């Protein structure tokens, strides 16, 4: 069985109808084919090494270097790294970590015969550490001094359906992370999101149906659509996406929250303007749309919702009158959306909804297979790691939204008034979703956000102000 390098990047060319928008069926197939690309075979040592809990967990290992196992020697790792992608990833981590604090090379410092130890933190988000102890330390005591270390995040794949009992067994998830979302458009991913939405609509009651204004939404009755929305077309993909003017009609819709990026409006040919409006009412220029917008159209269609609102397409960008009119309605717009799709990981509209990750796949015919990727330390809370949480307009969109699907730490996540969830079944703990109860709290958290245009400072929070004023008209904001 050949080892593979896999990636979550969904930038592969898709086949589809003449309008250029892929159908779900061809889309799923293309993504799955693009996710696993054959590469150099792993070395025999990596293929046969016992990456089990008994090997990795120091608490279960008697003797040795404080219970830590030996993976290989540094010389063998260097030699193998020329052909084995996993050894190469381990070596790069060791060398980069060492180079940050030292001027000499790691090889000159340790030689070829020094041992590379392996240990792991097994807590649902498995991290394996490959480390070297300083050569001069002969009898290390706890805590073990580490000259350098290379950390990898590891996911386990037992095969079969992602909804099987193993993946939701508490003992199993206590130690191992589920396989990564290699196929973000696959049916299990869409199935999970539809389950979250259905559960919220059916079981969560008034808590998830009430807007900031205190108005309770009748979920059985479609909302009045915004002035313009994107008709994403039927699930079959037989009709392409286009802009429609709602004229007060009702319908269920999603709304996109995302970062535009730093480029000027003139550099975005996909925008709806007075010149492109008529053309967009006939058909959206699929090939010109940035990836985040394409992804949101695909996702909306996949979950069976017909309409989508995106500011850059649904507001006439060179009309001040239209912009002011629509911007003033954003509070109600995001609050009434069936679901808000948040592109949390991208700093611009080209990033897409899903963070690209490259994995090294270690297959096994006798035990569970593993996926490895470089461990990236995240600083502080999600607010410090996800670009969308630095933006002013996004603050309002999140405060007003009743349901949000977003991506963080290479997982799909859900939030509503009842709580948070991840697609691997583990808990999401974050302060992102605090329900600010006073205007002072709202302004305090909003004031640190960034805006592309400083003149938007008041407008970008006016939706929250309007909703609160409906609930407490006697208050002066």
Automatic annotation (TrEMBL):
Residue ranges of the region described as Disordered: 1-23
InterPro entries, A to Z: HET (IPR010730)
Composition-biased stretches (Low complexity): 1-13
Domain spans labelled Heterokaryon incompatibility: 253-397
Family matches, as Pfam families: HET
Domain of life according to the entry: Eukaryota
Spans through the membrane: none
Protein name listed in UniProt: Heterokaryon incompatibility domain-containing protein
């Amino acid at each position: 069985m050949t080892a593979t390098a896999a990636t979550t990047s969904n930038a592969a060319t898709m086949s589809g109808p003449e309008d250029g928008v892929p159908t779900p069926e061809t889309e799923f197939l293309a993504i799955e084919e693009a996710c696993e690309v054959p590469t150099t075979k792993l070395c025999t040592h990596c293929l046969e090494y016992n990456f089990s809990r008994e090997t990795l967990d120091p608490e279960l290992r008697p003797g040795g270097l404080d219970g830590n196992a030996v993976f290989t020697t540094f010389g063998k790792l260097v030699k193998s790294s020329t052909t084995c992608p996993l050894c190469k990833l381990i070596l790069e981590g060791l060398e980069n970590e060492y180079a940050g604090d030292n001027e000499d090379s790691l090889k000159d410092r340790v030689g070829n015969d020094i041992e590379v130890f392996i240990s792991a933190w097994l807590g649902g988000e498995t991290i394996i550490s490959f480390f070297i102890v300083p050569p001069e330390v002969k009898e290390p005591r706890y805590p073990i001094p580490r000259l350098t270390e290379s950390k990898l995040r590891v996911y386990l794949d037992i095969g079969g359906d992602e909804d099987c009992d193993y993946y939701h067994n508490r003992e199993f998830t206590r130690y191992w992370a589920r396989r990564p979302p290699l196929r973000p458009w696959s049916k299990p991913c869409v199935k999970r999101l539809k389950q979250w939405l259905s559960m919220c609509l059916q079981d969560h009651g008034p808590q998830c149906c009430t807007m900031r204004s205190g108005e309770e939404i009748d979920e059985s009755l479609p909302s009045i659509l915004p002035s313009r929305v994107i008709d994403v077309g039927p699930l079959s993909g037989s009709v392409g996406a286009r802009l429609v003017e709602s004229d007060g009609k009702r319908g269920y819709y999603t709304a996109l929250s995302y970062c535009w990026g730093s480029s000027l409006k003139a550099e975005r040919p996909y925008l709806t303007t007075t010149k492109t409006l008529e053309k967009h009412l006939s058909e959206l220029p699929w090939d010109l749309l940035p990836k985040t917008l394409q992804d949101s159209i695909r996702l909306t269609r996949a979950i069976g919702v017909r309409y989508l609102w995106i500011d850059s397409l649904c507001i006439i960008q060179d009309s001040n009158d239209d912009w002011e009119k629509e911007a003033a309605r954003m509070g109600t717009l995001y609050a009434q959306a069936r679901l808000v799709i948040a592109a949390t990981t991208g700093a611009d509209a080209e990033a897409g909804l899903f963070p690209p990750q490259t994995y090294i796949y270690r297959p096994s015919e006798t035990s569970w297979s593993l996926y490895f990727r470089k461990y990236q330390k995240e600083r502080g809370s999600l607010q410090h790691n996800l670009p969308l949480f630095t933006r002013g307009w996004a603050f309002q969109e999140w405060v007003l939204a009743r349901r949000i699907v977003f991506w963080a730490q290479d997982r799909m996540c859900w939030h509503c008034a009842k709580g948070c969830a991840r697609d691997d079944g583990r808990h999401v703990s974050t302060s992102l979703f605090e329900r600010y109860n006073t205007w002072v709290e709202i302004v305090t958290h909003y004031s640190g956000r960034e805006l592309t245009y400083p003149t938007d400072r008041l407008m970008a929070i006016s939706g929250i102000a309007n909703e609160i004023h409906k609930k407490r008209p006697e208050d002066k904001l």
